[in-house]
Amino acid sequence: MPHAVSHAVTAARLAALLPARRGQAWQVTLGPYSVRPNAATSRITSGDRALVIAESGGVIEVFADRLDLFAVTPEIVVDASGPDPAEVLAARVLGSVLPRLERETANTTVHTHGWHQVIIDKAAELNEVGFTLIDHGARPAPVPRDDGVGIEWVDRTGGEWGLWVLTPTGNFTLSYAGPVAGLYDALPVLLPSAEGHQAADAGSNFTRHLSNRFPQLRPLDHRTVEFGGYGDTKGVIALSAGDEPADRPDDNRRVAAEFGRLGADLLLTAVPHLV
pTM (2 decimals)? Predict the structure, then answer.
């Protein structure tokens, strides 16, 4: 009997924008069930992860297809009439949906196999990112820690990066120390969407320089900006020298930054901007 649900037009484009994992691109199939009456529906999969994309009434919805649970509430809803809705969807899937699925998987693993198994699983993903960094010319070195594992490397600007599996949360933490300009290529990929954000007048010349360039950044004080909300990448960027004044917006000023709640897929997408 033929399937009555048609393919969501956006599904193939979205799948192409998500990184292949271990050489396997995301696969597109027809939706196994209709999440909306008469909506064109597709399912995209990568290993044991699956997303359902439904299109109807000028709206595109993305659902997480969890094991033994029918998708009911969409993770993402976007207007199909935008200039490139698939690109908007991909950014949100990478920044919030897939990291949340990683946290759910880690929570299950903690209860069934213990937190050490989460560290082992994430270390395998850390290796995947590490080899991708090598492919792009970086030289990551492993760094053992009492509270987890990590790798460190130096980019072309002399900035020092570190990628860490520190707790069994299921997500990664990325650190940076170097000139603030060394972050500018990576921030558009790592930060959540700028939609709804406004540049702040608070803080100092330094923090306003950053928040004017990236409205997702919020001055925390005259030396520090923070970013992220519920479900998003979260973190801070701060002047690294405690006695340095914050009244100069020089792009060569040294900062320390930390990005938390990152998923492996977002990191793989960001690799070309981290070397």
Answer: 0.92
